[in-house]
Amino acid sequence: MNEEKIQHYGDELFEAWRARRVLRPLLEREPDITIPDAYRIQQRFVARRLQAGETIIGKKIGATSKPVQDFLGVYQPDFGMLTSGMAFQEGDTIDLGTLIQPKAEAELAFVLKDDLKGPGITAMDVIRATDYVLPCFEIVDSRIADWQIKIQDTVADNASCGVYVLGKTKGDPRRLDITLAGMVLEKNGELFSTGVGAAVQGSPANAVAWLANTLGELGIPFKAGEVILSGSQSSLVPVADGDELVCTVGGLGQCRVRFSGRSAA
Amino acid sequence: MSMNVTLAREDVVRLCERIEGAQRRAYAIPKLTDEYPAMTIGDGYAVQTELRRRFIAQGHRLAGWKAGLTSKAKMVQMGVNVPSIGFLTDRMARPESSAISTADLVHPRVECEVAFVTKKALAGPGCTRQDVLAATDYVLPAIEIIDSRFAGFKFDLPSVIADNASSARYVGGGRARYAEEIDLRTLGVVMEKNGEIVGMGASAAVLGHPADAVAMLVNILGELGETLPAGSFVMSGGITEAVAVRPGDNVVARFQDLGSVSVRFVE
């Protein structure tokens, strides 16, 4: 795909994000978009956000579970960039008016104390380089109408990143069994679903190793201090005005978030 | 829950013999409500109680109880809002890491559960999570092998209760723990069959907390005029979906803080 088209679609996604409106699926209009093309479109979209004043905080890993991979027809994860405007803390209220068609996912976030430079990174390197893990929510959102996404659409759209919420309880992966730690998700005080770390690529550390290796091949830095959302351990939760979500990671702690207002779509 | 019994004694005995025959010779029968459409939950327990009486008269030892249909998904699937219970005998127990024959089963499925062993008697009504935890000697991970005697695993609540809540075999193992030393609500569980993950979840999937499921079981026992003696083995309900198994299959249940339990299946 030529640079002109890459820029065009990246700009389109940026404008859609800024105006809270949706686009027709890119792949419907450009059937030949490859996954590498889609990452170049993502880079353009994110570059526009950085030009508008944001900074890169970390990365998110998506499409890590078998049901999502079956839905997208791909058998590897994808990634997107976390920027400063997406960051929320445990206990915050998220204004749905800033989003289009949000859904929540419960995850484990990693914060690194050492750079991870792939290729050649294993899960053992990830544990060694991890400063701490946190319970977190990712609020995914799509700039594509009705979430009618194929893998190229979601990759171009920054892996459908919306905003994210970090819990405050830090865990050491040498003390916490991140593979078998249970995930309990409650919505408005009622059990919504349960999961476990292994839902993410067999272990969240495998997903982070995949990211380090993929970024290494692309020459994208993966630095100490970055926040990495390792992939959803829950089913997608629809959210509306007044909803409160709590996720609890067994042996670690919880993350709580509230929502107010109405999303655009 | 009403424990009203509407069946005549001779019908209870007849249905019990039908269930016992299907269990003993491992064949599928139509659900009981095909012939007795007005059958109640109380009737189902009357048949199950008769089955338990017969097994004990034949020399089986009552080892404990199981809670069934304890997850929201399963209750929705069955169109019921109450879980069910069934009894467990020594004859249904199999050791950890053993080979389990499927020749005497109809269409077995496996589930991962948190199991409790009690050190004090418990009685309903009014049994709470706190009562259960105070009466618990230890908790351990377990694999339950369920096997409905009804064709196609299709049944309704009165029928499945009469069929002893699909109880067939059970395997306790892994690592015994004091309940107060772990968070029983958030234990992660992974079930693998032949090295592939086939089920995942956390223990809250069982009525919000496994000890709540045991309290519920004790309260149902109370309605049946029974108590749970000290030393009972109680399975609190499947955390993962039930998965079908065949000869040659290897199943491993991995639990946060409780270790793992494995079994394999043979002809």
UniProtKB/TrEMBL annotation, chain A:
Protein's name in the database: 2-oxopent-4-enoate hydratase
GO MF annotation, one: 2-oxopent-4-enoate hydratase activity
Lineage, uppermost ranks: Bacteria, Pseudomonadati, Pseudomonadota, Betaproteobacteria, Rhodocyclales
PANTHER family: 2-KETO-4-PENTENOATE HYDRATASE, ACID HYDRATASE
Enzyme class: lyase
Domain Fumarylacetoacetase-like C-terminal: 65-259
Keyword Lyase: yes
Enzyme Commission code: 4.2.1.80
Keyword annotations of the record: Lyase
Gene3D superfamilies, alphabetized: Fumarylacetoacetase-like, C-terminal domain (3.90.850.10)
Gene Ontology CC terms: cytoplasm
Matches recorded under InterPro entries: 2-oxopent-4-enoate_hydratase, Fumarylacetoacetase-like_C, Fumarylacetoacetase_C_sf, Hydratase-Decarb/MhpD_sf
Species this protein is from: Pseudothauera rhizosphaerae
Coiled coil: none
Region forming the signal peptide: none
Keyword Lyase attributed: yes
UniProtKB/TrEMBL annotation, chain B:
Species: Pseudothauera rhizosphaerae
EC number: 4.1.1.77
Superkingdom of this protein's organism: Bacteria
Full protein name: 2-oxo-3-hexenedioate decarboxylase
Keyword field contains Lyase: yes
InterPro entries linked: 4-oxalocrotonate_decarboxylase, Fumarylacetoacetase-like_C, Fumarylacetoacetase_C_sf, Hydratase-Decarb/MhpD_sf
Gene that encodes the chain: dmpH
Keyword DNA-binding: no
NCBIfam families with a match to the protein in the record: catechol_dmpH
GO MF term (any one): 2-oxopent-4-enoate hydratase activity
One GO CC term on file: cytoplasm
Entry keywords, A to Z: Lyase
PANTHER family linked to this entry: 2-KETO-4-PENTENOATE HYDRATASE (PTHR30143:SF0), ACID HYDRATASE (PTHR30143)
Stretches assigned to the Fumarylacetoacetase-like C-terminal domain: 95-265
